Amino acid sequence: MKKILMFALVASVALFTACKDDEETFNAPAVASPDPVSAEFNTEAEITFNYTTDAGFKSASVSATNGSAVIKTNGTTGSKSGSVVVTFTAGNQVGAGSVILSVTDNADQTSKATAVISVLEEQVVFYIDGNITANATWKTGKVYVLKSRIAVVSGVTLTIEPGVVVKGEAGTGANATALIIARGAQIKAEGTADKPIIFTSVADEIMPGQVSSPNLDPTLNGLWGGLIILGNAPISASAASVQIEGIPPSDQNGLYGGSDANDNSGVIRFISIRHGGANIGEGNEINGLTLGGVGAGTVIENVEVVANQDDGIEFFGGTVNVKNAIVWNVGDDGIDTDQAWAGTLDNFIVLCGPDTDHALEIDGPEGSLLAAHTVKNGTLKGSPVAELGDFRDGARGTFSNLYFFGFPDPAATSGRGDLSLSGDKTLASFNEGNLVFSNMQVTLPEGVEITAVFKNGTAAFATAVAAGANTVGANKSAFAGWSWADAAGELSNF
């Protein structure tokens, strides 16, 4: 009997010891500290803590400094791994804060992790590093930095409030930054004369509330890409839809063109686009404002392009109308039209810079669509190297109430300073009445005849006037107060 009792006692001790050993084999929970985050006064930030636990999740608790915190999504009971989502509400003291999460397992072991919070009076700068795939609003008084080529994808609307500054980081080739409004997407960028929306380079120190750059010269270009708006309106090209220039073919958000003449890509009012035109390949740069297949349902008014390496505004087909546009110091053409754009440009100014090629470059259809556009009420100021206009490849359209001044003598500049019709197709379009000019005025260089400037029979529709005596041209008051060109005094001699 004693032997039996002794054996039972030894077995009990062994079993107890084994159970105790089993309990000690569970490691304490491991909780990862999240990346630091920031939150403005009295705003919420969601913070995710990831955990692993051998004994299974039992419970969690949270505490905070410089704010308060509650558990929004708890861990799953018994789970070996998972996450706990905490909502942190910032206090009203600038500086550091923290969220401390404690996780307890089924062995009653507890571990903690801390999330570091920066509590800000106001967060001003936000970084955009991926395509916009859900409706978004960029807020007044904020700066949004494009980290790469960003597309607002089909079905999504980006709203940009008055006074926002959008900055593009430097990049060339496939890494050139740009904001693309893809077919089927919309942009609602409605600035005001008091609070224009500014698109510029990250090198620009301008902040909301400023009109002129505090550090960049208005001739400095190519520092980022530009604004590209694409739609479903008809184009005259090799196919009903094609890839826009400046965007790699691999990016399907670069497609434009379709059959909806009234397509609506949104609203643009009072915006200024600066220092763009990044080079993506040999002779291939992004325009300041590119409009590809944009429909007549889109509203574009009061637009400025400054110091773009390529064209200021370029139309690729479509039916969109543009009113009150100003282009200053571009490296190629002020206004460029292609692929049978069928809209109207009304009340515009082109201020040629030291590298501007043509104030106007008008190209004809590239496919079977033979639509034409209207360009009227424009003032075009030349430079020593700029041409008034080049009409090419069967150009079609109506051009009226245009005033040119400040252009060089064509005879002294190897043909710069003239308005010409290039090629037999363009001459035929002119002679057949598909390319129409009327009521053009020009202030000529001293001693230059009007026929030396307006070539191929277009002089019949132009009149020479003294400087400042023009009766046609743009209404410069539309650009007062909100444009950099006006703030810099570039319109004072109009």
What key phrases describe this protein's structure?
single chain, 494 residues, mainly beta, 2 domains, 15-stranded parallel beta sheet, 9-stranded parallel beta sheet, 4 helices
How would the blueprint of this fold be written?
Elements: H1 2-23, E1 30-31, E2 37-40, E3 44-52, E4 57-65, E5 67-73, E6 81-90, E7 95-105, E8 110-120, E9 125-128, E10 136-138, E11 143-146, E12 149-152, E13 157-160, E14 165-168, E15 178-181, E16 186-190, E17 197-201, E18 227-230, E19 242-243, E20 255-256, E21 266-274, E22 279-281, E23 284-285, E24 289-292, E25 299-306, E26 313-316, E27 321-328, E28 333-338, E29 344-351, E30 358-363, E31 373-381, E32 387-392, E33 397-405, E34 419-421, H2 424-431, E35 435-443, H3 450-453, E36 462-464, H4 484-487
Parallel strand pairs: 2-8, 9-11, 10-13, 11-14, 12-15, 13-16, 14-17, 15-18, 16-21, 17-21, 18-24, 21-25, 24-26, 25-27, 26-28, 27-29, 28-30, 29-31, 30-32, 31-33, 32-34, 33-35, 35-36
Antiparallel strand pairs: 1-3, 3-6, 4-7, 5-6, 7-8, 19-20, 22-23
InterPro entries: Pectin_lyase_fold/virulence (IPR011050)
